[in-house]
Amino acid sequence: MLHLALAASVAFSPTRIDAAVASLDGIAAQVQKRSGIPGLAIAVVRDGKIVYAKGFGVRKVGSPARVDANTVFELASISKSLAATVVAGEVGTGTIAWSEPVANHLSGFTLRDPWVGSHVTIADMFAHRSGLPDHAGEGLEDLGFGQAAIFQRLRYEPLSPFRISFGYTNYGLSAAAISTANAAGVSWEALADRVLFKPLGMASTSFRFADYASRANRAWLHVKSAKGWEPGVFDDDEAAPSGGASSSVTDMAKWMILQLDGGRYGGKQIIASAPLAEMQSAQIATGPRDANGYAKFNGLGIALTYDELGRLRLSHSGAFEQGAATTYELLPSAKLGIVVLCNAFPKGQPEAVAQMFYDLVEVGHYRRDWLGFYGKAFDALTAPLLSKLNGAKPPEHAVPARPNAAYAGTYVSEMYGPATIRANGAALSLTIGPKPMVFALRHWNGDTFVFRPAGGGFNPLTQLTFAPANGARPATLTIEWLNETGQGTFTKQ
Question: Which CATH code, of 3.20.20.70, 3.90.10.10, 3.40.710.10, 3.10.180.10, is assigned to 2-98+123-382?
Answer without folding.
Answer: 3.40.710.10
